[in-house]
Write a structure and sequence with these properties.
The protein is an all-alpha fold. It has eight helices and no strands. The longest helix has 19 residues. The chain starts with 27 loop residues before the first helix and ends in a 5-residue tail after the last helix. The relative contact order is 0.11.
């Protein structure tokens, strides 16, 4: 994830958005407003990726207040959810998991803040994984000689789960979702 240098503006040109199109230099408020307008998702995939990158940078900018960084994080998640048609749900989940895991690591778990709800994040990831860890372990055996399709499936699973590794200490407890998540994390080194 790239660093974002400015407090509440995207770098480069100044100005807001014209005719529903985003321009660099838009403020955080303008970008939030832009993403909440109908048709924002019709922008090109590159446009959404650029907005996501700017928002991730704002989220990581240690010179900003916690509230502002959380708003940038939510903006990054909104840009990810608007994603392009060429992205799989697993790719979008992996991107969202990176943002949410970062916010949890920096600002703590928050049960009233859906963005920082760790059990909810684990549940969403597991839903996108779509199989129990024992089936994943079976598929991981001999992955080097597996079909390209199987390798990609396992790689996408690994990409969705990897952001949880720094949060491993927070995944304690008897909750079934947390137990299954821990089992998947143990399996990660065996995945392509």
């Amino acid at each position: 994830m790239r660093e974002f240098p400015s407090a509440d503006r995207c770098p480069a040109t100044s100005g807001g958005h014209e005719s529903g199109r985003l321009r660099l230099g838009s403020s955080l408020e303008e970008l939030e407003r832009y993403l909440s307008t109908p048709g924002a998702s019709a922008a090109s995939p590159e446009h959404g990726e650029q907005l996501r990158d700017f928002a991730v940078g704002g989220m990581q900018s240690s010179g900003l207040s916690d509230d502002t960084r959380l708003r940038w994080g939510r903006l990054a998640l909104a840009a990810i959810s608007e994603g392009g048609p060429s992205r799989t749900p697993q790719q979008a989940m992996a991107d969202a998991a990176h943002v949410r895991a970062y916010l949890i690591a920096k600002f703590g778990v928050g049960d009233v803040d859906a963005v920082r709800d760790l059990p909810a994040l684990c549940s969403e990831i597991l839903r996108n994984v779509g199989m129990p860890p024992d089936e994943g372990a079976r598929l991981a055996e001999g992955w080097k000689s597996a079909s390209r399709e199987r390798m990609l499936r396992l790689r996408r699973i690994k990409n969705m789960l990897t952001p949880l590794l720094p949060l491993r200490a927070l995944l304690e407890g008897d909750d079934l979702v947390l137990q299954e998540t821990r089992a998947w994390l143990e399996l990660l080194p065996r995945l392509p």
